[in-house]
Amino acid sequence: MIPPPSLFEWLRPDAATRVDSAGIFDYMDGAGELYLGYRFDHLEAFIYKAANRPDILLETYFMKSSDDAFGLLSQDWGGEPAVLNDTVPPAPACRTAPESRALYGAGLLRAWSGDLYLRIMADVDTPESRAAVLELGRLLVRGRPEKPRPDLLGALPRTACGGNPDPQSVRFFRSRHVMNSVYFVSYRNILRLSPSVDAVTATYGIPCGPGEIRRCPVFILRYPDEGSAVNALAEFHAAYFPEHGAEKPRGRAAAERGIKEDIVRLYPVEGGWAGYRLHGRFGVLVFECRDLDSGTCVIQDILRSIQTWEANPHE
Amino acid sequence: MSEKIYTRRDFIRGTLGAAAGAAVLGNAKWNPDGAVNAAAPSRVVLVRNEKVLDGKNKVDASALRQMLDETVIKFTGRGDAVAGWKSLVKPGETVGLVATPHLNPTHEELIDAVMASLVAAGIPKKSILDGQGGPDRPKACTVLIALPALKAHWLTGIGTVLKNYITFSGNPEAYHDENNIKLGEIWNLPFVKGKTRLVIVDALVPLCDKGPQPDPRYKWPYKGLIAGNDPVAVETVCLKIIMEKRRLIKGGPWPLSPPPVCVEAADKTYKLGTSNPENIRIEKSGWLQDALV
After folding, report:
1. Range A51-89 burial, b when 16+ CB lie within 10 A, else e
2. Separation in Å, CA of B228 to nearest CA in chain A
3. Rounded to an integer, what is the distance from CA A156 to the centroid of its chain?
4. What pLDDT is attached to residue B185?
5. Which residue of chain B has the CA closest to A238?
6. Quick one: which of A131, A225, A245, B46 has the most CB atoms within 10 Å?
């Protein structure tokens, strides 16, 4: 993908600034963890310049999968949806997450297209720079075969315990840094997140009484195998619920670290009830539920959703 | 005995280091009338000027210089800016200006204005250094003027005053993750401690969310300078402004995540100043609309 050498009055230099994973911290002030937390390959940056016009920075992030590029966009669903490509695949079966593939706001266009994540930003948001930013996005994306969203989104239930998800809260991620930027759990990697783990989150508004809605973040984590999931949840249990002791070995998969697959673990903690459940290579986590019944209800609805989705995968 | 792993629960309980959750959750007890309870509160000066930026956020250097003068006069209590700067920095001293180079960087116009002010106060230009960088920078200076820009940070919650000295440690990576709670200790390094005569926060166009790259949707023309010599008090006021702006954007509480645990730790653990709003006196001047504190 070669960006156009000119765009209206704007011109770019011949060569891009190329940044790989070793150089990303120098490029962005030590916070390259966001991109490395997904499967980042490299990025290419150009600055388009025009006389008496704001500079336009084009950053193209080459990710190792379209899921990673989607995950970056899912960091923030704010902004005005923009359509850059007329080859978007059919609407996904699961509508939990927003369907936008490109979002524009205040001079910044963010988009995912296959394994690319784009950030195109004008120094100043003017009608001319907006037109140029959007046109550049269209030129870069047009004709590219689009990929489906991460399949794991399909595991999020349409409702949980009678509550709807906030579409703006849906994220796909793989790292603790991203998880903590969404919902701080621990600075340590107590859920053993890694590039080989897929994770989705959404916050559900659970009805708790007349006119009362309680916002409960839920997480679905898919590990490479059942043993990885067991170990991760055991570590989470030990770190997050230390007063409840270590899990005792139960069941086949949990023999080594001991989490029985069919048991929901929920505990009253600061800010509400929190807990988890293992399901094969999946871990389901809930936070800030009102009580034991509510937490159990949410987890069971998520579990049913995962089972339905496993039987008939979509997204 | 296994090492304690801190979690969200510790943070809410107020046992994550010294940090309690109230301030960063936006529930800190600020007196609505600005009254303070301490006998000797930390003073934080806030000066704003509606005309310091044009519609495209371009800085009017003249207006900014006036704001800076007013900030120094107000903070030092001297009759003019030159006298104010002279009370802060003496001839023969070497001054390091410690600006923020990345992610919503300090405006060059502010750095230039501070430098011009120091020169006007009799400090030779050759004695005014770029203080940002590794430990050799503060070691070369007898005085530091911190010039961070107001911003939230993707990894540390807030990345303004305390984080501005992270490179002085010579090992910034050592302050990542949970160790960001220790940012205050850098201010107590022998070659840093006691050198900061003034913190002036560039709050012209703050950034209230996101990173690691700036998102213009979360920048706004606040048009302010925030100053004091208590870095924790200044940071606490900065945090209040960011939290209020976030609340306005979302229409309700929008906590920073991860929480900026370094602020209260800088108070309770490293004794750098106060993070208790009741011990902070904010002295406002100029444009007051939407001051958020």
Report:
1. eebbebbbbbbbbebbbbbbbbbbbbbbbeebebbeeee
2. 26
3. 13
4. 97
5. B5
6. B46
Which residues from B are below 8 Å from A275, CB to CB? none
Per-residue tokens: B150: 């107001």
Nearest Cβ partner for B155 among A54, A108, A177: A177
3-state helix, strand, coil in chain A (%, to 5): 25, 30, 45
pTM listed for this prediction: 0.92
- What residue type is assigned to position A207 of the chain? P
The 10s digit of each residue's pLDDT in B241-261 is 999 999 999 999 899 999 999
**CB-facing half-sphere around the CA of A260: CA atoms within 13 A:** 6
Name every residue whose Cβ is closer than 8 Å to that of residue B167 and which is 6 or more positions away in sequence.
Answer: B132, B133, B134, B137
pLDDT at A187 exceeding the cut of 70: yes
Mean per-residue pLDDT for A2-17? Answer: 96
Interface of A with B (CB under 8 A): 28-34, 54, 75-76, 78-79, 105-108, 119, 121, 124-126, 177, 180-188, 190, 239-240, 269-271
Helix axes B108-120, B81-88, angle to 10 degrees: 90
User: Tens digit of pLDDT for each residue in B134-172?
Assistant: 999 999 999 999 999 999 998 889 999 999 999 999 999
Q: List the single residue in B154, B211, B216 with the smallest CB-CB distance to A108.
A: B216
